[in-house]
Amino acid sequence: MERASRSLRIVFIAVPGAFMAIMMLAPALQGLMLSFDSCGPSLRNYDLLFGDPMFWRALANNLIIPAGSLALELVLGLLLALYLTSRPKPSGLVEVAAVLPFAIPEIVLLTLARYLFMPRGYVNAALTEAGFRPLGWLLPNHTLALGTVILVDAWHVTPVVMLVLMGGLQSIAPELYEAAALDGAGTFATFRHITLPLLFPSIVAAVVLRGVDALRIFSTTLVLTGAEGVPVLSTYAYQQWTDAQQPHVAMAASVILALAITVLGLATMAALRRFGAAEPVR
Questions:
Q1: What is the distance, to the nearest Å, from the Cα of residue 190 to the centroid of all Cα atoms in its chain?
Q2: Bigger pLDDT: 268 vs 65
Q3: Which domain holds residue 14?
Q4: 15 and 105 both lie in a single domain
Q5: DSSP of 180-212, one letter per residue?
Q6: Of 110, 120, 218, 273, which sees the most CB atoms within 10 A?
């Protein structure tokens, strides 16, 4: 019986696990080899990469956009989660509006956002009607374009953060709030000493899940501003592969992006876990 159970574990766990590992490692190793010169092991492609100012812009944007987007998502997601869980029967319109951006296909939402923020789009038309001058929301190499990308990216994914935080809020025992009310604790004190500490695991989950995903940003910048308007590492690699016909340089940029995602993801998880362990629950 034990031997049969072990055989089943090998068949249904080990074999699929090994297959998935091979399917993931083989392309990764091939990409790593492609990032070196086709004539032999060389760092020439990385030298070309580090000498390109566009690469450094893309690298900086690949850190700024996820950080700004994640900050907005946490604030908006927490506010929405608190509102929806604090009411016995929240407005159906608010619930639909909160989830709808993520339910819409990404390319549809990005096309809508482009029509909103393009030079003769609806936002500038509204500004003109109100007596203000139109703004260059999507102008290449412009700070406002960077802010627009952050705003649209946060708009699209805030529902994911909201749902994660809602799950954490609903797991908090109501008796704790009743005890706090009996002790005379105000709204802010209750949030500071009960809600926030007990919600911290969900916040960690949201930050790690969404933070790692945000580093892979691609379609948002490509649709809104083009490959060179607000470049990130993924659009830079795409441009090198398709327009510049430099597959080795493109793969070198992809390797750096993969390393950045791995290192920052693990560092964020470790830091948040350590901070959470040090945070006393009062």
A1: 30
A2: 65
A3: 1-34
A4: no
A5: HHHTT--HHHHIIIIIHHHHHHHHHHHHHHHHH
A6: 110
What's the total number of domains in the chain?
2
- Residue 24 shares a structural domain with residue 146: no
Residue 5 binned pLDDT confidence (cut-offs 50, 70, 90): low
- pLDDT confidence of residue 280: 45
User: What average pLDDT does this structure show over 24-40?
Assistant: 65
Is 108 in the same domain as 19? Answer: no
Q: How far apart are alpha carbons 250 and 58 in whole angstroms?
A: 13
Band (1; pLDDT cuts 50, 70, 90): low
Q: How many CB atoms lie within 10 A of CB 213?
A: 15
Q: Are residues 159 and 223 in the same domain?
A: yes
* Rounded mean pLDDT, 13-34: 68
For residues 117 and 123, give the distance between their C-alpha atoms in angstroms, rounded to a whole number.
6
Distance CA 59, CA 23 (A): 28
C-alpha to C-alpha distance for 252 and 262, rounded to whole angstroms: 15
User: Do 69 and 77 touch, CB atoms closer than 8 A?
Assistant: no
Question: Is 7 in the same domain as 97?
Answer: no
**What mean pLDDT do residues 189-200 have?**
87
Q: Are residues 103 and 167 in the same domain?
A: yes
- Stated as kind and residue range, the H or E segment containing 29 is helix 15-34
Looking at residue 210, its pLDDT comes to 87
Q: Calculate the CA dihedral of residues 217, 220, 223, 224 and round it to 10 degrees.
A: -130
